[in-house]
Structure formats: structure tokens, C-alpha cells
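Record type: ASSEMBLY
Status: queued
Input:
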Amino acid sequence: MARRGAGTPFLLQLSLLLLLPLGGTLGCASVTVSPPIVPLGSAVTASCTVQRELCQGLEPGRVRISWMLDNKPVAGSQRQGPGGTEVSNLTLPRFNHTQARLFCCVEWNGTKQRIGMAEIRAGYPPAKPLNLSCILNLGDYGLTCQWQQGTDSHLPTSVVLKCTGSRAQAVTGCTPRGGHSHCTVPRRLLQLYRQMEIWVSATNALGTAESEHLRIDPMDVAKLDPPTLQSIQSIPFQTDCIALAWDVAWGTEHMELQCELRYRAPEDPAWALVTGIMGQAGTAQRCGFLFGTLYRFQMRCRRSSASALASWSEWSPGRNYTTHEKAPTGKLDAWWGAQPAGARGQLEVQLRWKAPRQQEANGRVLGYRVSLSPRRRGRDPPTICNTTHTQCNFSVPAATRRVYLSAYNAAGESAPTEVILLERTGQPLAGLRAVPGGERSLWVHWEAPLAPVTAYILEWQRVAAEPGHCSACWQMEHDGAATTALIQDGIEPFQCYNISLYPLYEGTVGVPVHTTAYSQQKAPSHAPKLHLKRISKSEAELCWEPLPVEVQNGFITSYTIFWASSITNVASATVNPSLSSFAIQGLKPSTLYKVHIMASTAAGSTNGTSLTLVTTVLDDSEIQFLFLSLGLVFVGLMVLLICFQKNERMKEQLWPSVPDPANSSLGKWVPTAVPQEPLQLLASREPGPAAISTVTVLEGEPGKQPGKEHPALAAAPPALPRPYVRQEGPGEPVQYARVGGAGYRGQRLLPEPAPRFYENLRVRGDGGGGGDWAFLEEPPATFPLLQGLRLGGAEELHE
Amino acid sequence: GDSWGIFTFLCAALCNLPALPALNCSEELGAGQSIQQTYDLTRYLEHQLRTLAGTYLNYLGPPFNEPDFNPPRLARAERVPSATVDLDLWRGLTDNARLAANYRAYSRLLCYLRVLDGQVGTAELRHRLAHFCASLQGLVLSIGGVMSSLGYPLPAGPAAPPARPPRAPAAPNDFLKKMDDFWLLKELQTWLWRSAKDFNRLKKKVPPAVVTLRLEARGF
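Status: finished
Output:
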């Protein structure tokens, strides 16, 4: 198409419109689909009619018509139609798409060209709308209805709310906006106070569906506003009745309403309901209220002539009112304890009582008064106590038997309760036991008494290290025939309570009986600490302190002691809870044991910390014996030592003393006179005092005199051996050796048979020769001592 | 004169509407319930009129909206069906006669009101008047329904203005016109008040089986 300037868009459109039907390819074929909107899954038939003459550019010959459904080719049947047209029919047996385009195509210049199109839609008939309900708004008197659409039909559906009045001509009440399923019928179409029929109609190309017809009077479904409570009064005064006044909501003044009132005190579990109140009356009276209590009132209304469809309005905003007070009524439960005290015969009384219930208190109790005589007109009795607590301790003369207790509030004082101070001399009850009744309560049971009882008093005190006194821990059971009671006040789990029961007889109070109980037990907080008292080879004695009551958390049923070592298994023993020591037997000596104690109650056990102990190797007795024996042995040894020291002979036996050779007898021996010259020589000459102090063996030249030696023996002819005789002479030294200057040839072994051991040298009589002595001339050098022994004579010779 | 003729024509045209077969509506409910509904509708109309009258009189302006305005009845206002009939006389009538009188009176009153609706200036007033007219029409239909359920024939045709002698001309001036409107509202009020009593009485007369339920619900 030619592109014109922007100045003539209208002309362009016009020309397009004119040109298209004339020369365009679209004009040559026409597609018809019947029906264009079908139910999903049903058959669709289409036909495409091609007029050759109108189609330009077609190839000569037969035109071949083909079909395309969106992008998929489908086959149709072709035939010649009237007037030189080609007609192709197509049947789609099951049309499953909600929306599709069907194209009729022919071959054109070698390509397929679409020459006709039809749009097919499929879906379901509309679903029936459900749950139609309407509400009339009293502000503008418009009726708002809502419903639930059915399942989607995949086709464009128009939904309309229809209504009909008494004319029986259905008109469209309203049309919902967008896809909403609610709309509002305006006032001018409504017939108030008359039956109307309302329903929803949904229409699409495949059909129409209508909801259930709703037959209602629009006023029956009006949403009312709640009334407003205006005033509440106690009328007449001093009774338990109140008078209410209210106003109905604006817009409902002309209606006949029936209303309901509900009221409640904060401690009440549920609302009290009063029905059948006429809305128009504006006032109502009601009795049966408690005195001095705060109540909350609420009201709601409904059209009394409405059918069952009419709903109640919301509850009005609440209004509070406190009823007036009255003097308390009834008797107070009282309990006392009395002890004589003081020198002047006074009686110390501890009086306790329970606060009156709400029904009897008739208001807020301001205080209590205790006096000695009941109140009489005109005279105020002497007041012993005036208190806001529920107990009083006071002193009265010992002869006092009665005191009078009364409660007072802002409106007056109650009639006094007579409390007779009876003595506790009556029969005690038997069979008192307490069992847990829950986490915080105890059931107390006892046996029926022999004598008739007017009431029972139960007391309970917590058992603890520092005993506190709970003044409210008591209650009175008024039924004298009861044998069981429930304690709920102030009972805590895991605490021990000491429960006492006093029967109140006619003229006396019974002696109390006591029992202890737990409302709930658990394992002790910790186990006692173990201490080792004594340990030996095969047993160990442990001791512990019993657990204090606060830690027990229950009645201790037993203590269990566990011991184990690295080589043995864990062993245990259970101990009676009254004991506080235990001896473990059968331990192995010299082994490391770990012991711990477990304290058990009925509800659990707690383990203590581990204690390590080592058994001894020996028993005490054995050790003692050992030490004793060692000691004895030591002492014996000491004694022996001392003895030895003292006793020479013993000493000699054991430690023989080696004599000093200098002092030996051998030293005193002198050589004997040998019948030879040397001997005579010897005898002739005075042995000179020749003492040898040192001996040196020389290997030197003959004739040389050693320096140090005694200058005695130089160049002396070799002396003849001569026997030695012991010289008995004082101061005669023993001569051991001879210093020979010459001819000393040093030591050499005796070639000849040596003298036998310990055998004195035998001196041969013949001197000078003998084969016995190879060196007879000289003393054998190998026996220096012997030589020394002989030297004595030689020296003398030389000197 | 001419205006009266136009008025008559308008009325006739408008008043034919309520006379359409309203009786074709299938009232399956018992007579008792229709009476109850009619009674409730009357009370509702009374309540609506209070608000409407207040607004309209304010629209008319002083002296009409003053509380102590109590003018004498002018002769010309007699075209409006008067409710100030002797009460003994009224109670002496049969139920049928009373119902018929109510039916006729309200039909005519509706006519007049519709004319009023056409002339009123403010949109709010028009809205309220339209609302009231719709309710009043409902009342006429309800009364028709009650009559048919009790077996009484409907009064023949609307009580056409030609019954009235055409000697009362249209209001010559503004003030007198306002006066006409004032009296229309006042009569309407009295009619509604009396109708409520009538229907209340009728409710008790109709077979107790249907109505007992209602009474019990309202008593203590």
C-alpha cells in the first residue's frame, strides 16, 4: 500500500476499506463454521468456499484447499461447488481446545496462503451459582447479595441478579462488577415488608444457569445496629434488683424489637442471659444480683416479627455497674490456739479465720472485729482486736471461754460469730493418711470417729529447716460425717507438709493426729556427700549426713551405694534410709575404687559425686604385726651389737684380730748357737747394736758401699750361714735383712728344693759345702726375712 | 381551571400504576403474616415521614418549620383526604370499610406526593421523597394484598380526583401552595398513625393460629 502522509489518515483507512473487498485475497474465500461456539469435546464442522474468479494469482488448474487448525494441518474433503466454486468441508470430531483459529489455505505461487479464517471457541454451559445470601443495609436501604460462582466455563459469561416483587415481572436487580460475585440492589426496586424473589442468572453462548430462588422480605435480612444502654440503677434500694434503661439504635425506632440482656461478674465463668425483653419498652428490671459486685451488661436486639432468617444485631458496648453494698451475712470459719501465759492467769490466744465468700461479704470487707461479748444496742462492747488481717493474737483472762468475731464493710457489720475456746482434750482420730490429689493438692483420709463430730479442722505446715508459720494454712470441714477432705491452698509440689487433724466435738476439741505427705515427689536435688570413715585391705566404711528436708523433694526410700574399680564390675548395695553409714566388704587390696551414693525417692533418684578410695595393701593388724616384728628385730640386733662389743671372746670368734708382727713372738727369736765359727764369733763378740732400718737391694759393683746403708757389711766376706737364735736381750732389734754390698746377686729362686712351707730352715751341720745350699755363702736372697734373720749374726761379725 | 385539568390528568396517569394487577403476586403467606407485614410497613412509613417532614418543612422555610405553627384548616385543603374523622365513627366501621378507606386514601395521597416529588428543588429531598413514595406504594399494594387474603374485594378504580368538586383551584400564590404541602404532610401523618392502630387491632382479630407465634415472641 502506498504510504500517504500523516495528514490524510482518514482517507487512507477509507481506501483500505474500499480496496480490500475488491482486490484482496481475502475476498475470494469464505469460511463458515457451525457452530462457532461449541461445548468442549463436541464436533465442529467448517466449510471453505473458494471462488476462482475473485482470487487473483492462483495457479491454473484445480485449486487445492487445505486446512490449518492453529499450526496443525488438518484434512478436509473437497468437492466442486455450485457456480464454479470449490468447497471444502471439514469435520473436527472432538474439539478439545477452549479457543482456536481455523484457517482455510490454498496453494499460491508455490506456497500455502491463508485465505480465510474463523475463530472457534469451546467451553461448558455456565455452572449454577450457589449459596445466594442477602443483607439489607439500613443506612441506604440497599440490598447487598452475594453468591458463589460455579466452575469456570471458559466462555464469556454474563452474570446478573434478578429480582421480582409482587408484579411477578423479573427485572434485573443489579449486575456485579468485573469478576465479583456480589452486587447491591437499589431501594427503588425493593419492596419492603413484602416477599421478594431473588436469584442469580449466569448466561453464556451455550446456555443459562440460575441459582436457587431466594424468597425473602428484605426487612427480614436487615442488619440491625445494637441498642445503647443508657443507665443502670439499684431500684428499689437495699434489694438485690437493678433497673436498666436503653435506647434502640437509630433507624430501628419504628420496629418491633425483641431484645436479650446478658451480664456477668468478673469471677463468673459464664454470662447470665435474660431473653424476651421488649425493645420498645426502653426499661427492664432484674433481681438476683450479689451485693457490692461489679457487673458488666450488654444487650442485643432483633425484629420480633421477623422470620427465622432474621439475625441478631451485635452485642452492644458493655456497661459496668457496681451493685450497692450491704452488711456481711453468715458465719465466719474460725480456728484458735490458746496457751496459758503470764503470772496473772492470762490466756494467750491466736485466733485465725477465713474471709467470707463473695455471696456473704456483700461488698468489700473493710475489717474484722473481735470482742468479748456480742454487740448490744447502745453499748459498744470492748474490742480486743480490730484488724484487716484474718488473724489476731491477743491475751484474755484465763476464765474467758467465748470471744465474738464479726466482719464489717462500708454498709455495716455482720452478726458476730461466737467462738468458744474449747480445750484440746478430746479423743484423737485414727487412721489419718494423706495421698497426693494432683500437683498442688492433697487428699486427706481418716477413720470415722466414735463420738459425733460437729466439724473438723485441718492444718498443714511446710516442713523445713527454719519453720515459718503459715497462718492461712488451715481449713474447716463443716460436714461432721465426712472422712475425707481436699487441701488445695498453698500446697506446692516437692515440699513436705505436716498435716494435723482436729475433730471438733460438742464441748471439746480432740487431740490432733499428724501425718506427713508430699503432693508430688521427684528425685532429690542432690545426694549426700560421702566421707570415708575407715579403710582397710578389704573393706571400707563410708558415712554421710542425712539430706535436709528442703533438698529431699520426697520421702527417701533408700540410699544405694555403688562401687567399682577398673578391674571389677559395678557393685551396689541398698541401705535403709534411717542409716547414715555403711561398710563395703569384699574389696580387693591395693586397688583404686570409685564409690558414689544414690538417694532415691518414690519418684526418682539422684547420684552423688564420686569418691575415690584406695584400699590398703595390708590390714592394719598385719601392718602392726609387721612393724612390731621389725621393731623387735631391730631391738634384738641392737642388743646383739652391744653384747658383741662387750664380750671379747665373742668378738674373737667373729672378728679375729690379726696380731701385729712386730709384737709377735717371732720377733723375739734369736738365732741358735751353731757349732761353727760364725756362731762363736757371734758369741764372742758383742753383738753390736746394729739395727737396720731400711733394706735396699743393690745390683751394684762389688766393693761399692751403698750410701745409706749401714756401713757395716761392705766387703765382708760372705758370711757363713748360721742359724738364728732368738736373742733374749732388751732392745735387741730383730734383724731382717743383710745388706750385702758384694756378691749380692739379687734375688733368685732357690734352685734346690726349697724349704717346706712353714718349716724352719734346717741348718746343715757341715758348713761350707753341701749341696743343699747352692749359695751357701750367702743367705738365700729369696727369703729376705730369712736372710734378715741370719744377718744379725753377720753384722756382728763385720762390726 | 387548566392547571387542575393537567393535575387531574397527571394523577390519573400516575395513579393507574398502583392499580395494575398487583394482586397477581402469589401471596402464599397467611393473612396473619400479611397483616403483620402491613403493620410493620405502616410503622416504617411513620418513621420515614418524621424525617421527611422535618427536611421538607425546613425546605419550605419559616413559618412552616416552627414547632408551634398550628394554622387553621383552610377550605381549599379539603381535597386531601382528611384523617380527622370521629374516632367512634371510625371504629364503628367494618374491617372491610376501614381497609377500603385506607386503600383509597393512600392511593390519593400517593398521587399528591408524586406531584410534589416532581416539583421539589433539592436532590436530597427528591431522593427522600422517591424513597417515601416507593414505600407508600408498597403500602397500597400490601393493603390490597390483605384485603384479598381476607376475601374482600378491592375498591373499584383509584379514587380519582374528579370525585372532588373541582372548585378548589390550584394555589394562586406561593404561600398557599406551601400551605397545601404542609397540610398534605400533616394528613399523611394522621392517616399513618391511625392505620397502625387499625392493623394492630386487625392482627389480633385474625385467626390466632397464625398470629399466636408473633404475640408470644413479643410478650414476656
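Annotation: Residues 30-162+178-205 of chain B form a domain with the Growth Hormone; Chain: A; fold (CATH 1.20.1250.10).
Annotation: The radius of gyration of chain B is 18 Å.
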